[in-house]
Amino acid sequence: MKIVLIHGQSHKGSTYHIARMLAEKINGEIHYEKLKPLTDAIDEADVIILASTVYVYHATGAMKAFLDHYGYRWMVHCPEESMFRKQGVCISTAAGAGMKPTNKDMMDR
To answer: What is the pTM of this model?
Structure first.
């Protein structure tokens, strides 16, 4: 099983470590450092983990940019057929509130 871990932040804090722990628990081959090119890693993955820290009650700007760029691949009206076989997981962490809208950002796009 191959896993791609999309982390919406530039440093490896608690959100990254939680997502990494999940990916390791699944016991798959993790594509994180080797995201060249990103599209190939997504295509090869069986599981896609989207992880974002809560910034102002939403996903990080980096995660939003990723979702805006690659969202066409799983849009309801014209999805990429290769995406039908994949499992997706959304992870968010916060020091306070905002995890629900952050997960909604990642699930809806």
So the answer is: 0.71
